[in-house]
């Protein structure tokens, strides 16, 4: 990664007498000297008054921001322990640099799932409007950019990025750049930047060589060559044991800021989990059984199709007997099969939400069908669904809310159809309600939050409300339906369970017995105790799982293919992987302590 500040020139100039008639070179270097001197004199955050009424700034966050501005002018990794608000700390630094006119072109590279969260945090708390890059022209047209790193590494986007000298590059989850062979690593390596800030709660996940690769990207030569690094700091070639008094800890302090939870003395709120299982009525049970039988039949039919070789599709056509037209058709079939599987997953999820949502989902699914027998089956299922008189899940929700009393509640559902029917049912029951969903514009979202904060008792959110919003003036979450990815559930809880929450966070989960939703609740949360993880640790667990299919697809296939076999069920792969990931996290923590614990 190219750096534009040349400190050797600054040192040279400091020894040179500069008179009123200095050359252009001396003038330019003189400006650079004053620039560096100005940086080193920063002892307060000038921008703090612009956001202090919107967030609770903590002493260690302010200190971290000042340290970055004073001591790490060009590159730094903020490696605060999970749950300590690295996004907020970094946003404070970005805001300060912008206010002081020390940066102009800023790009933030993030995992795709976090781009909207970053945008919302910067907009709502720091009044900075960042554009999420969707087209290569966005980088030139806009000074403040957020980009999914998967989008940024595509050839057209990377070409546009590399034409620009960036004043500041921020990389979230920078530990994912540990492999020099990946496109992500090569993208960052190719960029021209003046300053770089990397964020990671887990800069080391497997061994110390990953740390070397990461630092060699951000600061080439900082730890020497890989061989020198191994000889100087490690006891073995596996990179799991450090030499005693090797000096690596002191070396890391020159490029990393690491704050541990125990240093902050912050008291994190406890969690109380209540899972409410209910039985369907006979009519509901019959309907769901028939719908799921249809879903299972459709899924098995997809799996029994002749396998599509994705490597052939992407490979050299001259080494294949297939024509380019055949390969294009295979690629289309491969994509179509994936979309059909996704449709079945969505239909399964919607069927375990509100009855109204299930009916609407079946009506939409019918439009994608071509065979008369499949269409007739959907018509039959719709007829049964419309004859079901009650919605047991909504009735159980009303009972849960009655027990909660007059406390403010954040009620989550994954679907707009469910939000609509829940809003109606809550109003009939006498509750004051505000709605929040991804279809709203920023002003409408802000109004919904303000109404909830002021006088509404229930905020009914789709998962758009689980990203970037601080709702800690409430402490009760109700999951009317559950996302199948644990990270989504954690993001929901994270809206109220965060730094500054003073009350015990209550999480209520509602699930129907003998459905895929109750199966997930039992396997992921009860047996693996994922709800017991501390703030931020869910991401660490999921990062240890091999990246194959999505968790949602893995859960779905596990349930369909193995649910009827008790022996296989106990060995279901996705759950075994998550359990192994939890154990791996404990190893990561031990190695992390070896590297960073100040009391060690």
What does this structure look like?
With 600 residues, the protein is an alpha/beta fold. It has three domains: 42-264, Rossmann fold, CATH 3.40.50; 271-275 and 392-596, 3-Layer(aba) Sandwich (Rossmann fold), CATH 3.40.50; 282-387, no CATH class. Helices cover 51% and strands 11% of the residues. It has 27 helices and 16 strands. The strands form three sheets. A seven-stranded parallel β-sheet has the order 4-5-3-7-9-2-10. Helix 1 (7-14) crosses helix 2, helix 3 crosses helix 4 and helix 16 (324-351) runs antiparallel to helix 17 (355-366).
CATH topology of the largest domain: Rossmann fold
Shape: globular
Category from helices, strands and their pairing? alpha/beta
Question: How many independent structural domains?
Answer: 3
The level 1 CATH classification of the largest domain is Alpha Beta
CATH architecture of the largest domain: 3-Layer(aba) Sandwich
* Helix percentage range: 40-55%
Annotate the secondary structure layout.
Layout: E1 2-3, H1 7-14, H2 24-40, H3 59-71, E2 75-78, H4 86-99, E3 106-110, H5 115-126, E4 131-132, H6 138-141, E5 144-148, H7 149-152, H8 155-162, E6 165-166, E7 168-171, H9 183-190, E8 192-193, E9 196-199, H10 208-218, H11 226-233, H12 248-252, E10 256-257, H13 261-264, E11 271-278, H14 282-303, H15 310-314, H16 324-351, H17 355-366, H18 372-387, H19 392-404, E12 409-412, H20 416-428, E13 433-436, H21 442-454, E14 458-461, E15 476-479, H22 486-493, E16 505-512, H23 516-527, H24 537-542, H25 551-562, H26 566-569, H27 573-596
């Amino acid at each position: 990664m190219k750096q534009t500040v040349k400190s050797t020139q600054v040192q040279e100039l400091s020894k040179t007498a500069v008179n009123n008639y200095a050359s252009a070179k001396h003038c330019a270097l003189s400006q650079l000297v004053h620039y560096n001197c100005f940086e080193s004199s920063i002892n307060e955050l000038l921008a703090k008054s612009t956001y202090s009424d919107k967030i609770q700034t903590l002493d260690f966050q302010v200190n971290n921001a000042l340290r970055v501005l004073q001591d790490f002018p060009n590159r730094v990794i903020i490696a605060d322990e999970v749950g300590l608000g690295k996004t907020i700390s970094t946003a404070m630094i970005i805001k300060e640099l912008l206010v002081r006119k020390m940066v102009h072109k800023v790009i933030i590279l993030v995992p795709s799932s976090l781009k909207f969260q970053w945008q919302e945090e910067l907009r709502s708390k720091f009044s900075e409007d960042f554009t999420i890059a969707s087209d290569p022209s966005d980088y030139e047209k806009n000074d403040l950019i957020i980009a999914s790193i998967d989008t940024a590494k595509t050839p057209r986007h990377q070409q546009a990025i590399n034409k620009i000298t960036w004043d500041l590059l921020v990389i979230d989850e920078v530990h994912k750049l540990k492999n020099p062979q990946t496109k992500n690593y090569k993208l960052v390596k190719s960029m021209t930047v003046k300053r770089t800030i990397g964020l990671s709660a887990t800069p080391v996940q497997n061994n110390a060589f990953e740390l070397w690769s990461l630092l060699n990207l951000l600061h080439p030569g900082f730890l020497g060559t890989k061989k020198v690094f191994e000889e100087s700091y490690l006891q073995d070639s596996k990179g799991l044991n450090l030499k005693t008094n090797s000096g690596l800890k002191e070396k890391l302090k020159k490029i990393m800021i690491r704050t541990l939870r125990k240093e902050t003395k912050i008291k994190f709120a406890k969690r109380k989990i209540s899972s409410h299982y209910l039985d369907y009525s006979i009519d509901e049970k019959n309907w769901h059984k028939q719908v799921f039988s249809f879903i299972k039949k459709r899924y098995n039919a997809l799996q029994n199709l002749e396998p599509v070789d994705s490597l052939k599709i992407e490979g050299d056509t001259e080494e294949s007997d297939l024509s380019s037209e055949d390969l294009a058709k295979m690629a289309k079939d491969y994509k179509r099969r994936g979309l059909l599987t996704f449709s079945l997953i969505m239909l399964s999820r919607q069927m375990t939400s509100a009855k109204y949502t299930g009916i609407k989902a079946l009506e939409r699914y019918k439009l994608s069908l071509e065979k008369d027998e499949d269409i007739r089956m959907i018509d039959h299922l719709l007829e049964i669904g419309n004859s079901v008189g009650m919605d047991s899940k909504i009735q159980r929700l009303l009972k849960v809310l009655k027990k909660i009393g007059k406390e403010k509640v954040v009620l989550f559902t994954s679907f707009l159809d469910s939000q609509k029917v829940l809003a109606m049912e809550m109003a009939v029951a006498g509750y004051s309600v505000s709605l929040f969903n991804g279809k709203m514009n920023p002003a409408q979202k802000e109004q919904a939050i303000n109404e909830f904060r002021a006088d509404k008792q229930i905020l009914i959110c789709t998962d758009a409300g689980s990203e970037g919003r601080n709702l800690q003036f409430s402490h009760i979450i109700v999951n009317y339906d559950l996302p199948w990815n644990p990270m989504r559930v954690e993001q929901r809880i994270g809206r109220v369970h965060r730094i500054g929450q003073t009350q015990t966070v209550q999480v209520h989960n509602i699930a129907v017995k003998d459905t895929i939703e109750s199966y997930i609740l039992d396997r992921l949360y009860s047996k693996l105790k994922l709800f017991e993880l501390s703030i931020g640790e869910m991401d660490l667990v999921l990062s240890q799982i091999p990246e194959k299919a999505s968790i949602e697809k893995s859960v779905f296939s596990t349930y369909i293919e193995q649910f009827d076999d008790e022996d296989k069920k106990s060995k279901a792969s996705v759950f075994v992987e998550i359990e192994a990931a939890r154990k791996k996290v404990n190893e990561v923590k031990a190695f992390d302590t070896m590297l960073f614990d100040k009391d060690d």
